[in-house]
Amino acid sequence: TGPMTVGDLARLLRREASEVIKKLMSLGTMATINQEIDVDTISLVSEEFGAKVKVKEVIDESAFEELEEEDTPEELKERPPVVTIMGHVDHGKTTLLDRIRETKVTAGEAGGITQHIGAYQVEANDKKITFLDTPGHAAFTTMRARGAEVTDITILVVAADDGVKPQTVEAINHAKAAEVPIIVAVNKMDKPEANPDRVKQQLTEHELIPEDWGGETIFVPVSAVTGDGIDELLEMILLVAEVQEYKANPDKRARGVVIEAELDKGRGAVARLLVQNGTLNVGDALVAGSFFGKVRAMINDRGQRVKSADPSTPVEVLGLSDVPEAGDPFMVFTDEKKARDIAEKRIEKKRQKELGASSRVTLDDLYKQI
Ligand code: GDP
Ligand code: MG
To answer: Where is this region: G-domain (predicted)?
Structure first.
């Protein structure tokens, strides 16, 4: 829901701008005619003038959340945690992700070789964990910049032979800003010059105090090369997940986020999605970013075709009309026409933004029903 100017509102209410300004003042808001006021204020002022403002969903980034049905506690089921790996360059993020995947994806399984779909799931102690394997901080930061909250837990990788570096601190700040729990993986423990105590000492300065030093942060010594400590790391992830109780409702239409998307020569628009709530099914009509699509086929992280994907599951989806952006939200609509309408409106809105049109909503927008 975007703002509109005092002048716009006055016109809408068929009042002089000065009257509206006066009313605003009486409500404690000082504003000039060209000033933008938010929707709450608009409603308040309008009511003062005896007009009812029907603010229907204005299509913006957060609109999907507003469209989602609330879940009752009984409908909520446990879902796997979604984990992101962050840390300084060369501290072993990629190696760790590869190691976890190799050790935990059973080789005997059909299609045991994982394919890259931006995220993968492993099983430990009969529970699933979803790892985002989009490189570097990109996944986390671009998605967050777009307002998508994807990560439940962050693994902060710090090389024991190198200690805390600028990107380590950056990662801590991102995780803190997002209020995401941090587990520290002290990596490269196989190296003779490994000095885990120095890592602990340095991180203490950033308020990450190890449990054995009286703090609350879990530190796990690992080696992404030898595989030492990987099982413990996964156990700690499950422990945090148990405490945090991540839940979702698998019995409704799906909503989630685009992890990656690209145009494939043979297959058309390919979108890698993370289902965050509900269950995504082949045949579902969805809007991702500003694009409409019908899920033609879904492929899981083992390269297998699947018919459905429940909460925290990453899938590759074919059938979108165009390529959405990483971090774009997606949502399934039971009504295909509605899905098309919404996609069209989002395209229009995007176009206006790109044309440099001001961010204020038009009067039409305010009354628009979706
Ligand atoms: P990233 O930039 O954080 O993704 O780091 P990489 O995973 O690319 O690792 C950087 C270098 O460190 C590579 O040469 C890895 O082989 C090496 N490396 C990563 N983990 C370990 C480890 O646990 N032990 C040792 N000895 N080397 C490691
Ligand atoms: Mg890397």
So the answer is: 81-229
**Other Cβ atoms within 10 Å of 76 Cβ, number:** 16
In eight-state DSSP terms, residue 183 is: E
CA 189 – CA 207 distance, rounded (Å) = 23
- Interface confidence: ipTM more than 0.90: yes
Say which residues have a Cβ less than 8 Å from residue 312's Cβ, sequence separation at least 6.
79, 80, 81, 82, 121, 128, 130, 246, 248, 274, 275, 276
Which ligand sits closest to the CA of 90?
A: 1
Token look-up 């796990």 returns 220
Distance 229 CA to ligand 1 centre (A): 15
CA atoms in the 13 A half-sphere facing the CB of 82: 25
Distance 60 CA to ligand 2 centre (A): 33
pLDDT tens for 1-44 read 356 788 888 888 888 999 989 988 887 778 888 888 877 788 78
Q: 368 is written with which tokens?
A: 């628009």
Residue 224 beta carbon below 6 angstroms from any ligand 1 atom: yes
- 252 labeled binding residue: no
pLDDT digits (tens, 9 = 90+) for 158-198: 999 999 999 899 889 888 888 899 999 999 999 999 999 99
pLDDT digits (tens, 9 = 90+) for 111-139: 556 678 889 999 999 999 999 987 555 65
Instruction: Point out the ligand 1 atom lying closest to the alpha carbon of residue 189.
Output: 23
Residue 218 class from Cβ within 10 Å (0-12 exposed, 13-18 middle, 19+ buried)?
buried
What are the helix (H) ranges across the chain?
Answer: 6-13, 17-26, 39-48, 63-67, 93-104, 138-145, 166-177, 196-204, 230-244, 336-354, 363-367
How close is the Cα of 207 to the center of ligand 1, in Å? 26
Tell whether 137 is in a known binding site: yes
Best CA proximity match to 3, nearest among 54, 32, 38:
38
- Residue 339 structure tokens: 């899905």
Report how far ligand 2's centroid is from the alpha carbon of 155 (Å).
14
Taking alpha carbons only, the member of 349, 343, 328, 325 closest to residue 285 is 343
